[in-house]
């Protein structure tokens, strides 16, 4: 979990990266940047909310703004799950369980689900790439520098610097039934 100084540093880094192309315009036109800024601002305000009533109101504002942007983009990431350097390629149906722990510099694509099984959530290391439509479930560890390819369902731990490929589909013999036959 990041402290408020790390959140401020990441916000400054996001602004610096985007300033080359006009930060003010991109903040409202680039939905990925808009979501990341809302997420990091809400995390920073959460860390300061107990100082006084003004900070509590600031946290409420940033939390509501984050919830609005989250609903609008379809990305559901609880506050404090990701460490610094989160990179989202495309916003579309990204769901992360609140108990998951994700390290630094994680790249995540659309359609990713990171969920718990029987109360146990995944732990994902630093510099991990998670491809489109990947599903990571249960008490698994994804090692540092690993690559989870598109469409992979991860239910076992992945060692560091490994690549998880989807398995080949097996073709069984027999009569294929129509979906109407199941009713």
Task: Write up what this structure looks like.
The protein is of the alpha/beta class. It has two domains: 4-73, no CATH class; 75-165, 3 Solenoid (UDP N-Acetylglucosamine Acyltransferase, domain 1), CATH 2.160.10. Helix content is 34%, strand content 16%. The protein has helices at residues 4-19, 23-29, 31-48, 53-73; strands at residues 75-76, 87-88, 94-96, 101-102, 107-108, 113-115, 123-124, 129-130, 135-137, 141-142, 147-148, 153-154, 163-164. The strands form three sheets. Strands 1-3-6-9-12 form a five-stranded parallel β-sheet. Helix 1 packs antiparallel against helix 3 and helix 3 packs antiparallel against helix 4 (53-73). The longest helix has 21 residues, at 53-73. It is elongated, with a radius of gyration of 19 Å. The protein starts with a helix and ends in a 19-residue tail after the last strand.
Secondary structure layout:
Layout: H1 4-19, H2 23-29, H3 31-48, H4 53-73, E1 75-76, E2 87-88, E3 94-96, E4 101-102, E5 107-108, E6 113-115, E7 123-124, E8 129-130, E9 135-137, E10 141-142, E11 147-148, E12 153-154, E13 163-164
Parallel strand pairs: 1-3, 2-5, 3-6, 4-7, 5-8, 6-9, 7-10, 8-11, 9-12, 11-13
């Amino acid at each position: 979990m990041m402290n408020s100084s790390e959140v401020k540093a990441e916000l400054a880094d996001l602004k610096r990266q985007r300033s080359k192309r006009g930060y003010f315009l991109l903040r409202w036109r680039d939905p990925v940047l808009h979501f990341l800024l809302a997420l990091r601002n809400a995390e920073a305000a959460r860390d300061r909310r107990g100082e006084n009533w003004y900070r509590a109101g600031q946290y409420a504002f940033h939390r509501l703004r984050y919830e609005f942007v989250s609903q609008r983009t379809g990305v559901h990431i609880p506050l404090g799950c990701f460490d610094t350097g989160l990179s989202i390629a495309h916003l579309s149906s990204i769901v992360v369980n609140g108990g998951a722990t994700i390290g630094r510099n994680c790249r995540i694509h659309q359609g990713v689900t990171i969920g718990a099984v029987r109360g146990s959530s995944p732990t994902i290391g630093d510099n991990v790439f998670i491809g489109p439509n990947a599903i990571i479930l249960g008490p698994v560890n994804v090692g540092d520098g690993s690559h989870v390819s598109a469409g992979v369902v991860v239910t076992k731990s992945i060692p560091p610097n490994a690549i998880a490929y989807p398995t080949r589909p097996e073709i069984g013999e027999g009569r294929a039934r129509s979906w109407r036959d199941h009713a």
